[in-house]
Write a structure and sequence with these properties.
Elements lengths: L5 H14 L3 H18 L11 H13 L4 H20 L29 H8 L6 H15 L5 H5 L6 E2 L2 E5 L6 E5 L2 H10 L18 H25 L8 H14 L16 H10 L2 H7 L5
Antiparallel strand pairs: 1-2, 2-3
Helix pairs in contact: 1-2, 6-9, 6-10
Length: 299
Amino acid sequence: MNAKTVQELFDTHIENLYASKRLKYAEMHKLVLNSLLKFNRHLDIYFCDIDISWLKRYEKFLRNSGLKDNTIGIRFRTLRAIYNLAIEEKIVKPEYYPFKDYKVSKLVQKTAKRAITKDEVLQVINYKGKTDYERLAIDLFTFSYLTAGINFVDISHLTINNIIDNRLSYIRKKTKKLITVPLNGKVLELINKYRQAKNPYLFPILSSFHKTEQQKANRVHKVISKVNKALKFIGTELNIPIDLTTYVARHSYATVLKRSGVSTSIISESLGHSSEKITQIYLDSFENSQIDEAMKNLL
């Protein structure tokens, strides 16, 4: 066995995540590490020291800190991932694994509704924005909805190289899966609207000025905040019953297809949630023609 403490494995893993440019995951692991240090005061302990009793005390600590189930669940899933890594690297024996009996799955709240109806989607698409950011917000919402619910981070990194034979092809940052979807006339209009010779990116989110991963992450965070603020205002103007965000476009894409009678084996309502990987495997296993046919239900 490789005698490595919990602190040492966290430090190494965070360093590797940064080196792999997986900044979001690195930051989440840092956050959990700091949370664990606050709870236990130090992590110069071995993984076999983390038993069910220890996990229950940590859960109680988080609850006393005012955290809700979903946030606590994220902390525990990150800790569980590190424990699995420890087993994989032979730092701890599998028989010490405490998550067989301590179920992280119980730490889930029912997520608030994040999808709107087809009619409501069309109201958003047809809304006449009064400011540049409102118009950009509507266009990005529309683009996401019509390209299989592509999320904001992936949209921000798209370049002309992702357009191949009238299809959008890209690797999802989150799952590393190749996604390829057809581009209809409305989507091509949006691409042409924002294309600039001096900017390699399709949309005015990133530019050649943003060179490092941190610069890109900061810029994406800044723009998505402004876009979501504009979408929330538009949603209020249209009397849409939930807060409108870029993520609503992604969720609505799946829901509209399901309500149109498209098989859940092609696209599931939970796209982007805990079963996203399963959904992505389903999408990968079908011919383009089947997905193309399904996507005709969007407008």
